[in-house]
Amino acid sequence: MRLIVIGGDAAGMSAASQARKRRGPGELEILAFERGDFTSYSACGIPYWVGGMVDGPDSLIARDPAAFQQSGIDVRTGHEVTGIDLAARRVAVRTAEREFTEGFDELVYAAGAVPTRPPWAAGPVAGVFGVQTLGDGAAVQEWLSSVRVRSAVVIGAGYIGVEMAEALIWRDLKVTLVEQSPQPMSTVDPDMGALVAKSIENLGIELRTGVTVKALETEKDQIRAVVTDAGTIPADVVILGLGVRPNTALAEAAGIPLGVTGGLATDLRQRVTGPKGTVEGVWAAGDCTQVLNRVSGRQVHVPLGTHANKQGRVAGINLGGGYATFPGIVGTGITKICDLEVARTGLSSKEADAAGFRYVTATVESTNRAGYMPGAVPMTVKVIAEKDSGLLLGAQIVGRAEAAKRIDAFAVAVWNRMTVTEMTALDLGYAPPYAPVWDPVLIAARKADEAL
Amino acid sequence: MRLIVIGGDAAGMSAASQARKRRGPGELEILAFERGDFTSYSACGIPYWVGGMVDGPDSLIARDPAAFQQSGIDVRTGHEVTGIDLAARRVAVRTAEREFTEGFDELVYAAGAVPTRPPWAAGPVAGVFGVQTLGDGAAVQEWLSSVRVRSAVVIGAGYIGVEMAEALIWRDLKVTLVEQSPQPMSTVDPDMGALVAKSIENLGIELRTGVTVKALETEKDQIRAVVTDAGTIPADVVILGLGVRPNTALAEAAGIPLGVTGGLATDLRQRVTGPKGTVEGVWAAGDCTQVLNRVSGRQVHVPLGTHANKQGRVAGINLGGGYATFPGIVGTGITKICDLEVARTGLSSKEADAAGFRYVTATVESTNRAGYMPGAVPMTVKVIAEKDSGLLLGAQIVGRAEAAKRIDAFAVAVWNRMTVTEMTALDLGYAPPYAPVWDPVLIAARKADEAL
User: Fold this and answer.
1) Which residues does the UniProt record annotate as the domain Pyridine nucleotide-disulphide oxidoreductase dimerisation (chains A, B) (predicted)?
2) Are A237 and A152 in contact (CB under 8 A)?
3) pLDDT tens per residue across span A14-29
């Protein structure tokens, strides 16, 4: 039996590894095609590489093709799958040298995501980069070291945009961060976004919110400036942090149905499903799929390495004859901007509105440690709870230290459908170097309980 | 109506504050008696005060008597309650100057805990100290600054003993830590205790486990050495970290029934209960009470400020005419020894055995951050799960940074009776500065799932 995997990053290679663990090479042949040069890498690490905190690209690679080969997974980089023939059970593959087809019994579709590109960013321009792949990271690095770069513009102030803006500050550039919406990090509420905005500005980044990019200005095919509805910003390098969409082109062409978000829809075991049921022998995992948000009950597209790894693992266990399910997400996300930590889980106010919830919010100021301990710094925690029921719908944290990972307590509470009233009794870790006697998480739950 | 509170620390004053919040002075008179000099202080902060990291004692006081008086709570320090007459509804009180009685309608018993003292530590010896109260902390400070102290012996290697041993190292003393059981921190499993032992020794503390203290050697009523079954250890100062038991003497004398652990038993609303039902108008909270361990289903005595605060708050809300419950604990505890962080929740292997569980364990080595990030250091996570059902019974973490508070994810999972299988899907925060793409919590859950 032969398994073909399309995409050699987190989702695809996790699936391949788990399948291999359960079925030996005599039982299952595994062939993975990756169009780029790298396998199983941490795209999330690219900003730290560009910022000079981390050596790259090798350190960002969890497992290279040689290691996979050794464990009996035939992974081929520089191989782009160009077509899937479901009836004939084969894929068409192209390399720099040749084109050929390979047959499969089972297929894992893990093609990832493709960057969102507005019309003004449609064509390639020297000095304009996305940051999706290690190749992108290498290209940015080369540009920064070979061209005389003074001014950088980062377009889009989501996770990657904010992280790249910080990275470029570390490279001693003048950085402008342009965002169409009124706040950076629109995954958190406006009041929390305002704290993020202040921190971005304190870092020396020029933050321009509510600004729409209209065009890129070039000179000899090289970037020169970003033209916006609020003026032109000179730029020797432009980073695009405009988000991504599921890379489903091959699936669509093969007649594989898409879900409501435009991502591939799967069942709990990561088998691709459509209106007519499961697509026989086709699995999907990672950024090309949609996932269930367990709080809203809606399908969403949340491209994150952590989900991709979990989904890939689940697909691989099932392919290997085991049983595992991916029961969805609760919308957890964390990041840092310099020493500011930002975290969220569950639904933001906007998302709660969209899902139809009636809710109360409570925001508290506390500290990471007992107030009298050295290193005690402020932390803001916001909780969103359903009116009447008190069900925890979401939480957001902004703080200067030991803040972001506190979201995990909320994430597990959301997962288990706890009420904020029940949360006030939670037995969280207490010791003066790590928390006030009432942890900020508990204080926020208390305040939400009182607000009900 | 008059409420009398016995004990002016966390539990008692939380109760008083919550009751006051809900009932004005015209409706409810609140009188609190504290035999010591301080109210609402952080005893947990004493080691950091002794170690010189924190100024004391003022900074360790959350709220002083004057602040309580201002909010309409008549708290009297230096007032020791010496008797309770339940039938006559009054307490006998003694100060340095006089004795008197005061009547009550409602009583909150929050007398805390008293240190365990073996026969050899029965009488007071100059240079031998407990560390239960701020007064104890002040006495240690005075001794260290007024007497020529070179060698310190800390007896008992639980939380407070370990923390005090570290504090005394910061004071440039030669420190020996003596523990009767074979490992320090017997609240964690032996394999995790071994990691703690190594860290204690690396700190320059001489750790002597499996050693029983037989006597204190004095000269002119002043400490000179600690005599053990394995030799005599010179000591210019001795710290007793031998644990505490519920301070129930007054309650017993008044005929108030005790629970199976020797602590006061309460219902969910913190009303004292006995075999014949609720004791009318008597509430209890804090270190003098027993609490439900939600995992073992057993009553336990766990003297911790965080539980005391919660129980006091619950008692006060109910006293004030509101409704709140304290549904028990899951056994969470965290501490640090220099840069080693130690955490546990749920049941240890020994506790799981005692409760009658059959279980599997899984231990993993991971890192606090993505391996390629600066500051990535090792972390060991151990998970205990019920055989067959996969129910998470407990978890322990030892690490060098960003380790201890990771226990909260486990604590919330234990609280919600999750299985380790379900835990593998948890949506915990991921970003390279804060976690590997599989958080150590998830890796441990995966390994336990595989062990089932």
Assistant:
1) 335-436
2) yes
3) 999 999 999 999 999 9
Q: Which residue in B311, B408, B423 has the most chain A C-beta atoms within 10 A of its own C-beta, making it the best mutation to test that interface?
A: B408
Place of tokens 């016995």: B6
Q: Which residue has the tokens 């009523």?
A: B221
Q: Which residue of B has its CA nearest to A332?
A: B429
Q: Which residues of A touch B373 (CB under 8 A)?
A: 45, 48, 53-54
Measured CA to CA, the distance from residue A192 to residue A132 in angstroms comes to: 27
**C-alpha A2, offset from chain centre:** 30
Q: A22 in contact with B at a CB cutoff of 8 Å?
A: no
Q: Which residue has the tokens 């950024």?
A: A287
Residue B68 phi, psi (nearest 5): -65, -45
Quote the longest CA-to-CA distance of chain A.
Answer: 70
Question: Cα B277 from chain centroid?
Answer: 28
Q: Give Cα A307 distance to the centre of its chain.
A: 8
User: How far is Cα B2 from Cα A306, in angstroms, rounded to an integer?
Assistant: 57
The ipTM of this complex is 0.96
Strand partners, B94: B80, B99
Architecture of domain A117-242 in this structure: 3-Layer(bba) Sandwich (3.50)
Nearest residue to B394 via CA among B442, B422, B356, B360: B360
Instruction: Check pLDDT > 90 for residue A309.
Output: yes
Residue contact B432–A370, C-beta within 8 A:
no
Residue B380, H or E segment: strand B378-386
Alpha-helical runs (H) found in B222-357: 249-253, 305-319, 349-355
DSSP letters spanning A376-413: --EEEEEEEEETTT-BEEEEEEEESSS-GGGHHHHHHH
Dmax (CA) of chain B: 70
**Which H or E element spans position B365?**
strand B359-367
**Region(s) of chain B under CATH 3.50.50.60:** 2-114+245-319, 117-242, 333-451
Domain range B333-451, its CATH number among 3.40.50.880, 3.40.800.20, 3.50.50.60, 3.40.190.10: 3.50.50.60
User: CB of A408 within 8 Å of any CB in chain B?
Assistant: yes
Contacts 24+ apart (CB under 8 A), B133-136: B133/B36, B133/B38, B133/B43, B134/B36, B134/B37, B134/B38, B134/B41, B134/B43, B134/B46, B134/B56, B134/B57, B134/B60, B134/B61, B135/B36, B135/B37, B135/B38, B136/B46
Q: Return the CATH fold of A2-114+245-319.
A: FAD/NAD(P)-binding domain (3.50.50)
Residue B306's contacts (CB-CB under 8 Å, 6 or more residues apart) are A427, A428, A430, A437, A438
Of B341, B370, B425, the CB nearest to A326: B425
**Which residues neighbour A194 within 8 Å (Cβ) at sequence distance 6 or greater?**
A183
Q: What is the mean pLDDT of residues A316-327?
A: 97
pLDDT digits (tens, 9 = 90+) for A32-63: 999 999 999 999 999 999 999 999 899 999 99
Inter-chain CB pairs, A–B, below 8 Å: 204
A433 at the B interface (CB within 8 A)? yes
pLDDT digits (tens, 9 = 90+) for B20-42: 999 999 999 999 999 999 999 99
Spatial neighbors of B300 by CB under 8 A, at least 6 apart, are B261, B290, B291, B292, B293, B329, B331
Average pLDDT over chain A, rounded to an integer: 96
CB A405 to CB B435 under 8 A?
yes
Burial class (CB within 10 angstroms; exposed 0-12, middle 13-18, buried 19+) of A59: middle
**Which residues are within 8 A (CB) of B172 and not within 5 positions of it... i.e. 6 or more apart?**
none
Q: Where are the alpha helices (DSSP H) in A290-377?
A: 305-319, 349-355
CA distance B291 to A157: 48
Show the tokens assigned to A434.
């790590």
Residue A44 among the catalytic residues:
yes
The DSSP symbol for A67 reads H
